[in-house]
Amino acid sequence: MHAIGIDIGGTKIAGGLVDGSGNILKELRVPTPSNDPEAIVAAVVGLTNQLAQGESVIGVGVAAAGFVDANRENIVYAPNLSWRNEPFKAKLSAKLDLPVIIENDARAAGWAEFAYGAGKEASHMILLTIGTGVGGAVVSNSQLQRGKFGFAGELGHIRVVPNGLLCGCGQHGCIEQYGSGSALLREAKALVASGEPKGARLKELQESAGELTGNEVYQAISEGDPAALELLAELGSWLGQTIATLCAAIDPEVVVIGGGVSAAGDLLLNPIREAYLTHLPARDYRPKLEVVPAKFLNDAGVIGVADLVRVAQS
Amino acid sequence: MHAIGIDIGGTKIAGGLVDGSGNILKELRVPTPSNDPEAIVAAVVGLTNQLAQGESVIGVGVAAAGFVDANRENIVYAPNLSWRNEPFKAKLSAKLDLPVIIENDARAAGWAEFAYGAGKEASHMILLTIGTGVGGAVVSNSQLQRGKFGFAGELGHIRVVPNGLLCGCGQHGCIEQYGSGSALLREAKALVASGEPKGARLKELQESAGELTGNEVYQAISEGDPAALELLAELGSWLGQTIATLCAAIDPEVVVIGGGVSAAGDLLLNPIREAYLTHLPARDYRPKLEVVPAKFLNDAGVIGVADLVRVAQS
Amino acid sequence: MHAIGIDIGGTKIAGGLVDGSGNILKELRVPTPSNDPEAIVAAVVGLTNQLAQGESVIGVGVAAAGFVDANRENIVYAPNLSWRNEPFKAKLSAKLDLPVIIENDARAAGWAEFAYGAGKEASHMILLTIGTGVGGAVVSNSQLQRGKFGFAGELGHIRVVPNGLLCGCGQHGCIEQYGSGSALLREAKALVASGEPKGARLKELQESAGELTGNEVYQAISEGDPAALELLAELGSWLGQTIATLCAAIDPEVVVIGGGVSAAGDLLLNPIREAYLTHLPARDYRPKLEVVPAKFLNDAGVIGVADLVRVAQS
Amino acid sequence: MHAIGIDIGGTKIAGGLVDGSGNILKELRVPTPSNDPEAIVAAVVGLTNQLAQGESVIGVGVAAAGFVDANRENIVYAPNLSWRNEPFKAKLSAKLDLPVIIENDARAAGWAEFAYGAGKEASHMILLTIGTGVGGAVVSNSQLQRGKFGFAGELGHIRVVPNGLLCGCGQHGCIEQYGSGSALLREAKALVASGEPKGARLKELQESAGELTGNEVYQAISEGDPAALELLAELGSWLGQTIATLCAAIDPEVVVIGGGVSAAGDLLLNPIREAYLTHLPARDYRPKLEVVPAKFLNDAGVIGVADLVRVAQS
Hints:
globular; 5-stranded mixed sheet; homotetramer; alpha/beta; 13 strands; 10 helices; about 20% strand; Nucleotidyltransferase, domain 5
């Protein structure tokens, strides 16, 4: 039997009918209506009904960027959706005849990689998604970790610099401020503003585009612009240092790197690997983990949260 | 039926016969013979035979300060015992008729607190032992975490200061260098050496003892010496900051503080609690954890590793 | 003979007729007209003419918050006035019959303290002004240091945290982000936002005022609110650490603390003194410096820049 | 007329007869006898008499690695010579008919570069000597800065990492721990110990030499070994960051890099220049300084301290 996965993003809601091997059989997308929970509930219900039509479905999983409580019933805090303690599962269940689960989107993506993707051979895996922010998921002993209150795997808020840059979480020095796509863009803008000769190509791209965005930075990386590659390598170094610390606490065998910035491939992964090795505690006395790219990009949330429906019922 | 727990420390080996409720029925101690694995095997076998005599015993668990592999068969690296890849389980099993497990001592102590001590109401718990170094154990979903390679819970090697103090693990800036008893002693010595007036009481204690050791520092703390309390509070602050970072990754509901320095009670725990609260990411939107003292001090290893025998067979 | 000093601030321009002992004989203030250099030139000329009327005057000195070049002719960069490479001296000289000098306002204030104030017994002095930002002035061998390009004494941009908070100067981790009045206000707001019980008094003050400003924080400090005092002490600790580093480079005998926040007196100075002593390199082998409050508050710029006219002609 | 300069090093004492243009006319070396001040006084007297024979000499200057007081009479603290408050000038003057001055060796070297070497066109110069430690000298307004107590220019003890590596001065995080030859050797040893493939060449050199010393690291740098060059570049990056901070306080126009490690030339200087530019506060609004190699290597102390005799009498 199939399961439905829905992934609520900032600009669109994606839904998929997913089989028991993690394949998407049917997929639909609609624009994210607004921050109004009721409109989003309606959109999710609409997508679900379309996807379920004529199919035998065991349930629907819904992933969203926000803190989901440990019971997976409420969205405690979704900064982008401006939700606070939203009883999202109850609202969906009231309008759907199917079993419903909700999950944090990075955890759903982590589960997809663990079940069918880059971590499928592993029993202990970490996912880091490098996008606007830094998201995470932890799988230990083949179990997706939620922690006591549903906050496990918020790896973007590991502190890497005491008294460091201010983070949206209210603290200073989180890895999200040093290892995310936003950090990369901030540093690229600073380089252009500095007028240093090595920033010349980024400056050209800024001038021709009117404004420097992730697209221009990505173009410079693709062209092999040395300055852009250096900024990317610095990003990777911070991430590798963070992984070394996570080895002390969690000890995974594989770290999967996903999110938009991971499209840079080994240009990002190699600096991560190097910094990880350099900073690993007791590195002479322990096996090393692997750092690998994610298999699923845009579909990870849909596949993962659909599979979690299956897990919840098994 | 009872189980036997053996805890190999730097100066003595403690053994106990432990019932199914975590009570020690009989206890024996012998000096740690030397760093020779064979002599230690003989001592463990001797203790086990004495404790098992006339009892119905389901197995023996042995805890040691070292990295134990994920299969719990070899001691990969025991800095204090100078062991490398020692096949400790096989050597013990060859001389004992009982099932044998081996475990890292901090993880054994963590399990004792989880099963019968300060964490017994919890499903997600962290233990930090503050002694010469900083040890740790992580219990998630009521499972003791070992990680892929047996290194999970090495919380003393979470990095808190980039380019910070050199640690015995070969890295810089580990919490062990800021939050351990050794760190406290180092800072106390530095204060005395500085000649600052506020270090006067510590200086007196140093002069009367000939050398400043943990005992003198502890005495100054007991007397309420403001400088010693300030150093202890700084120790606690580093630990609280580390716990805040661990919340992002692991999200426990309770953190148990054990080890010799934890004898200072709330003088240590209150600064930990305050720093934890101050540094918790997204602190306005999440439940808080509790920071509590360990229940078992010297016996935690014996009780925990005996109970892990029971768990292994259930 | 007397000299005229003019201090161009963000909201008002103060002018004074100053005698050869640093006494202000006559003082006038007008609102700062706008950021238009011509209007400001006109205001300075007007004040000067009024103050000079019927007096024998050797020249006029003008202080402004901005980088003044080493020749003291141009204002290279004045962030608050939005000036860039403004030939301020030439514009003033064209309209005044008196010799003109221009100077950075913190350096002028530093000179006032050195010549007639808290540093008058010293030959090596540093001034730190703790206001919205952190300003500075260095006097070595009884000479006001300007550096090669006019940037010496920009002590607010000493880096104290690698990869630290972003500063208005484009760099990260400057002491201005940790030791200024703005830093104090930022931390006070964060404490109120956290909802922690110890922030209760600051929260009350915020609610009754509608918004938390420096005034409310200062009121809490005056009342002895423990949380506000703790934030102030942390500010002082950062400043003391910075002074310890400056001892290695410059080795002054006295550090004068001025600026609005210095009104807190020993509540600020004692934490500075303590952190300085704790962090001084080779502290057992060297004399210690003194940390003292500024003598002149609002008038320091006027007195100092008038005296610098005298120095320039001697 | 000529002056005599004597430079007391850890293994040898060098003496030279120096003309009024900074040329060494005659030079002698003897082994440093011991740490006994009397034996060193005798050696200095002997060298002086030999050099002065048949010459018209205005005085003798003696440089040593230690803190020299502001009156240049006593050596307050010389860690390598184990001297404390040694009245060195008085002891020398008692046995010599010439005027005597004493000076810190890095300051003497800085003066040589300022008067006749890489800084001779400048009025504001900083010298950084990168040897076992990091030494410094500051010249502002063409005056060698000594500070109030003789400690100005101790640039190796600028703090670059809060809670960083422990320094011989008793503090943590001094640039000497990150930017010296000792730091380079420490990092090279750590790389070899890590067993990482990129450390292969350094490992070979260690094995063939029996131990890794500065010579082996320098050989790897000379051969273009990428790992050794990377370690050297990191050293340079820390130094460049420190120079950026010194610009805020002192604002020199040229920074001269001397000491044994400076033999690496642009392999060291280019990373310094790059890091300086990247970290300079308000870098878009200010002239840049130059980073140049020292002109004098082993003779800088002799030339500089001889010239300071001349300055003292002019």
